[in-house]
Amino acid sequence: MSKLIVANFKMNGTKSSITQWFNDFSMEKNISNEVIVALPALFLFDFADNNISVAAQNVSSHSSGAYTSQISAEMLKDCGINYSIIGHSESREFLKETDEDIFNKYNQLIKYSIKPIICIGEPLKIREDNLLQSFISSQLKQFEDTDNELIIAYEPIWAIGSGLIPTVEDINEVSELIRGLCKNVKILYGGSVNEENASNLLNNSNIDGVLVGGASLDPKEFANIAQSC
Ligand code: 13P
């Protein structure tokens, strides 16, 4: 079955470097998996009309009003955006977003038929203290009752940008937990995915795709990841 391969550029790139990225990536052949690229908000409109889907990296939890600097789901839809990451650990940490905020963002996106890519994942201390299951369950609590198809990206915080990666068994344990809690779910793994480890992750674990940060900035490496299953 086709996998979902998502790039998260985070706060990287300029209009010209991203144009170059799309040009280089479009030269890559034999990619049968679905590819989505999450761009900095400022560039979404420029690249929305592309044969590769683009995603926002965040959205406001409010519909409109006095929320200086924020971007609403309605605005994303108006610019032709059909996906948005929410709940990324960097947004949770730096923007102090709570599970409740993330659920409100989810509802805003659903209202405008934008597919949320919901990020969850534990800090190392939680794993060391054997609190993983309760931590993941609490992050997913608000999503348990929905029949909507969910895309959940499991990104252990300690694996992001660190070069550390959980074993396939560790990933499978969490993905089974997620599948037990949510009815209709696609699971992505994110955290230090690169062209060397992608094939093992995609072919041997119980996931539906990957969410790639640093390694997605090189179009050739990202294409190798997208071709690895
Ligand atoms: P890295 O692939 O750079 O570890 O980042 C993962 C991530 O945060 C993707 O959203």
Q: What's the total number of strands?
A: 8
Content-based structural category: alpha/beta
Strand content: 15-25%
Spell out the CATH superfamily: Aldolase class I
| Rg, Cα atoms, Å | 17 Å
The average pLDDT score comes to: 97
Cofactors and ligands: 1,3-dihydroxyacetonephosphate
Structural notes for this entry:
- The protein is an alpha/beta fold.
- It has one domain: TIM Barrel.
- The chain has ten helices and eight strands.
- Strands 1-2-3-4-5-6-7-8 form an eight-stranded parallel barrel, surrounded by five helices.
- Helix 1 packs across helix 10.
- The mean pLDDT is 97.
- 1,3-dihydroxyacetonephosphate (13P) binds next to strand 8.
Topology:
Elements: E1 4-8, H1 15-26, E2 34-38, H2 44-47, E3 53-56, H3 73-78, E4 83-86, H4 89-94, H5 99-111, E5 115-120, H6 124-128, H7 132-140, E6 150-154, H8 168-181, E7 185-190, H9 198-204, E8 209-212, H10 219-226
Parallel strand pairs: 1-2, 1-8, 2-3, 3-4, 4-5, 5-6, 6-7, 7-8
Helix pairs in contact: 1-10, 7-8
Residues 8, 88, 155, 160-161, 190-193, 211-215 line the site of 1,3-dihydroxyacetonephosphate.
Keywords:
229 residues, alpha/beta, TIM Barrel, 8-stranded parallel barrel, globular, binds 1,3-dihydroxyacetonephosphate
